[in-house]
Every structure is written in structure tokens, then in C-alpha cells.
Amino acid sequence: MQGNLIAHFVDQRDKRLRALLAPAAAVAALGAVGVAAAGLLGPWLLRVAFGEEYRAGAPCWPG
């Protein structure tokens, strides 16, 4: 995959910023899906893995 990205940028020398936008948008979209999935499925998955007494509430969040 890295070779494909390098070839993509080399082929698009005159439009470097535009060539960067598509891969950056794909990474951002994948990250957003991951955050949403973690928020929705994470608490349930923790209870399944560690037992019903395990609850990750708001006090566990940093900040």
C-alpha cells in the first residue's frame, strides 16, 4: 500500500495538496467510524469481556 501511495503522489506532482486530500479524507473517515463504533459498542464489549460488574462511566473519562 505504501508503494501505491508514493506512486500516487509522484504522478500528481503538480497537484500535491489535492493528491493529499483523498487519502487524508479516507483516514479521517475511517477514524470517525472507529470512534463511533467504540462509543457505541465499547461499554457493551467491556461488560461481556470483564463481567456485568464492570461499568465504564463518565468518571473514567479524562478531563
Question: How would you describe this structure to a colleague?
Answer:
- The protein has 63 residues and is mainly alpha-helical.
- It has one domain.
- The chain has two helices and no strands.
- The longest helix has 35 residues, at 16-50.
- It is elongated and about 55 Å long.
- This is Putative integral membrane protein.
Largest sheet: none
The share of residues in helices is over 70%
Radius of gyration: 19 Å
Total tally of structural domains:
1
N-to-C terminal Cα separation, in Å?
37 Å
Count of β-strands = 0
Globally, the shape reads elongated
SS-based structural class? Answer: mainly alpha
Number of helices: 2
**Order of H and E elements:** HH
Q: Segments where pLDDT lies below 50 for 5+ residues?
A: none
Mean pLDDT: 82
Strand content: under 5%
Topology (SSEs and partners):
Elements: H1 2-11, H2 16-50
Quick rundown:
It comes from Mycolicibacterium fortuitum. This protein is mostly helical and 63 residues long.
Features:
63 residues, Putative integral membrane protein, mainly alpha, transmembrane
